[in-house]
Amino acid sequence: MEYKNLIAGDWSETAAAAANINPSDTQDVLGYAANSPAEDMERAIAAARDAAPGWAASTPQQRFDVLDAIGTEILARKAELGKLLSREEGKTLPEGIGEAARAGQIFKFFAGETLRQAGEILGSVRPGVGVEVTRSPVGVVGLITPWNFPIAIPAWKIAPALAYGNAVVLKPAELTPGCAHALAEIISRSGLPEGVFNIVFGTGSTVGQTLVQSRHVDAISFTGSVETGSAIAAACGAQRKKVQLEMGGKNPMVVLDDADLETAVDASLNGAFFSTGQRCTASSRLIVTEGIHDRFVAALGERMTGLRVGNALDDSTQIGPVVDERQLEKDLYYLDLAASEGGQLLGGQTLQRSTKGFYLAPALVTETSNDMRINQEEVFGPLASVIRVADYDEALAVANDTPFGLSAGICTRSLKYATHFKAHVEAGMAMVNLPTAGVDYHVPFGGAKGSSFGAREQGSHAKEFYTKVKTAYTLA
Hints:
21 strands; Ald_DH_C; 39% helix; alpha/beta; Aldehyde Dehydrogenase, Chain A, domain 1; Aldehyde Dehydrogenase, Chain A, domain 2; Ald_DH/histidinol_DH; seven-stranded mixed β-sheet; oxidoreductase activity; Ald_DH_CS_GLU
């Protein structure tokens, strides 16, 4: 199958193409994605610029109908789309179907938001003067999405962009073009005017950079690495262009002595290893107080080693493969590094299965300190480290001792500690007796410090990025 660009309503081909390979079975090639030149991105930007005024003037009902149609088709096809996602990204099939369903729910939510857009009428401090505060679309929005949630993250950027009246150019991840293409096909059948939504496949260094650097793009929303996000922030800042960044995480899960052991193990197992640990919200640092440390490590290690690693489409699989060879090599590098720094390693070996793929046993690294690189740098794989601490105060200090601040969790029966943790942990999202990964689609998503920059994503808070505010005064 060819994954073509969608520009101004036309599916266009390009000569160069990149293979989309199944990480569970490297002999399985799902299709070939366009490896587009910069000129294709420039055409897509021009198409969006031409279409933007018409869509900005559309009615709430028009926007509702389009977004609702997209959400309805995604939900009707969630099993098919989930299987595609699992084949190309490596999530287990239930995870893939769940992510596809979430994408549909996101479009449904923002369909409703089109009918809930409101302004304000305020009294002025000056007699006889009225004040109106309204919101309008930003214009042309460039979206750059990652491979680890290849349908949900595009959905939670595209849906609000369209709901608030913007034209869109999407540059999806190179590793997972299939889901982006399937989503683009659904959008193309929704009744959306030509040019309002465009998708261009290719490398970040070519089409991504063209999108970011273009003075005809009014805003950039990016999810990906800290390094790329920092470069995008600098480029957008130089142009005074609106920018939204979601980047890395080194998320702590604090386990206190009074925690329910089963709850703590369940939350840590899910947060650290499910989705092969390839989530920016994964629990990569398990910060455990002295009194429960040994029991927790023993119980978690037993549960972890019992997880079934295999082909993402197999019913018995609990952990799918790492996304590609490069990511697998990175995971193994950090495991070797942790061992060289004194960490004790359980699991973490490469595995052979009936199909050739990038299989890695989940890994737990114990006897670590927070200054070790494995505790300061994002790895993005099925591995977590354990840090032993004396008490809650030390646990909170260690949890906050990181350049990141996306998600954080605590397992405790103490209302006092849970309340204090929610107020004082330096993270955009805090969980109590729950995994650090797993958030609702109708509430704001984002972090603190080096994890995020700009307005929050998802929920009604998305309007802060995808709209601009105007204040109008009238003398009666």
